[in-house]
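Follow-up to my post from last week.
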Amino acid sequence: MSTTSLLSGGGSGRRNLPNQASFATTTTTTTTTTMNNYSGSRTIPVSLTPTTPRCACQRPSKETTMMALCMGVVILTSAGERASFKMMIDAMKPFRFFLTQLITLIYVPIMFAIVSYKKLRTPDIQPEMEEFSKCKFAFMALLDVVHLSIVTISGGIIPAPLTVLLLQSSVPATMFVSRYFLGHQYQWTHYTSSLMILIGLSIYMIPMVQSVTTNQVPSNRTHAVFSASASASAFSPSFSFSSSTPLSPSPSLPTTTVHAPTTELNVVYNCIIYFFCCVPGALSAIYKEYALQTQPMDMYYLNLWVTFFQFIILIPLAPIGFHYQSWSIQSNDSNWSDFRHLFENIGMGIDCWLKGNNPSADYRDGAVVIGAEYAQCEVRWFQRMYCCVVRHCIDLILFLFFFSSPVCIVFGLVLRGMYFTLQCICHPINASRCIFDAIECVFHCADCTLLCGLVCVQRYHCF
Amino acid sequence: MPIVLSYVVLYVYNDIIVSKSIDGSKIGFNGDLHWESMIGVVLVVVGVMVYRGAAKEPGTEYETEPGATPPPI
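User reply:
Got it. Predicted complex:
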C-alpha cells in the first residue's frame, strides 16, 4: 500500500487527499484518509446538558487518555515504519527489485479481504465506484510504481537519515504540481516553508558534494558487492550466509570482486534521483484528486485496484528496474546489470525473504528486520481495521473469517522474527546486531499486542 | 515529531549500530555531525512544521470521519 504517511515524514504534502495505494507511499508514505462514501456512518448522540468548566486539577477523562495513547502509538509506528523500511531495504540489498514487487503483491490479498467484506456486508462499495475507469486506476498505479521503485531501489544506497529528509521534498513538489496543474492558490506561508525545506536539503548535502568534488574517499569505506558466483571461500571472513544451507553458486555468473572502493559520486546521483521521486508521487496525488473530484470512491476499493495494477505494471518493467538496481549498487559492478540473471535474482530474493539468506550482509538475521517491517506494515493495517471495527461492529465469526489470514501473517512474521533472533543469539556473529534485532522484535510484538487489544476493547464496547 | 524520531532512529541505526564500512547503504559521507547537516535538518523540520501549521491547503475536501447527527436546535 503506498501509504506515504504525512506523519512518517514522507507525506505528500496534502492533508486532504486519498491515500496512495502503495506501501511505499506507506513509505513513502501517505496518511489514510477516508473517502466520502460512508453511508453507513454511526449517529453520535449529542448531550444537551450544559458543560461546566473543568478544574485544572481534574484528572483527564478516559477519552483523553485513550486519545493520548493512540497518538503515541501513531507517532511511534509512523517513525518505526520509516526506520524499519530502510532496514528492510538494507537487509535485502541485492534483491530490491524483488522487494518492490513483494511490497505491491502483499497488499493485494489484504485489500481483497477488506473489499470483499465491505462488498458483502456494507453498502460502501457502490455500483458507480465499480464503473470507474480501470485505465485511470492503472495510470495512478504507474505513477505510484515509479515513486515506489525509486524509493526502494535508490533508498538502498543513500545514507539512512537522509532518506527521511529527502522524502520531505514531496511537500513542495505537491504544492507546485497542484499550483500549476489544478491552479490552486497557496499562501505565502506555504511558499516560505517549502523554500525552507528545499534550502535545508541543499545545505544538508553540502558535505556530501564537497566529499565528491575533493574525491576524498576514506580507505576503510568499502562497498559490499554481491557476487553469486563467488564461492564461499571467496567471501571475506566478515561475510557469512544466514543459514546452514548457503546459496548454490551459479556457473552462469561471472566471478568478481567482493569488495570494491566506494564511488561516492554514485551515492550523490542516487540522492538526486531519490529527491526527484517526489515528482511522480506528487503527480499521482494530484491526479487522484483530479480524477476523484466528482467520483465517490471507497479508499480500500481504490487501493485494491491500484496495488493490483502496480504489480502487473512492474512485470514488464522488470528489465529496467533490474538494471537500475545494479546501477544503484555500484557503477562498475556488472554482475547484476544483465537482465538475463533477473529470474535468478528473484529466486534468490525469495530465498532471502523466506529463509533469511542474505550473502551480501555481514549478519545472518536479515529476515528479522524484514519480518519486523512487514509486522510494522500490518500494524498500520490493524490501525485501519480498528476504524473499521469501530464503524461496523462486525461479529467475531465474520472477523475471523475475513481477517484470519492477515492476522496469521502478522503473528507468523513476528514469531519467525523471534525464531531468527533466538537462532542468532544461540550462534552469535554480531552481538550488537542481535540485541538490536531482539529489541526491535519485542517492540513490534508489543505494537501488535497493543493494537489487537485496542480492537478487542472497542469491539467489546460495541456489543 | 515522527520526522525527528525517524531521523534519530535512522541515525543511530546508520552510524552507531551498524558500521558504515560494511554495507553500501551506510556509506556516502560522514557528515551527520557537520554544522551544514545540522542546519539542514533544522530547516527541513521547521519548514515542515510551518507548512503543516499554515492555513488550510486548497483542494478537494474529503470526509475523514463518519458524519455526525447535527444537534437538535
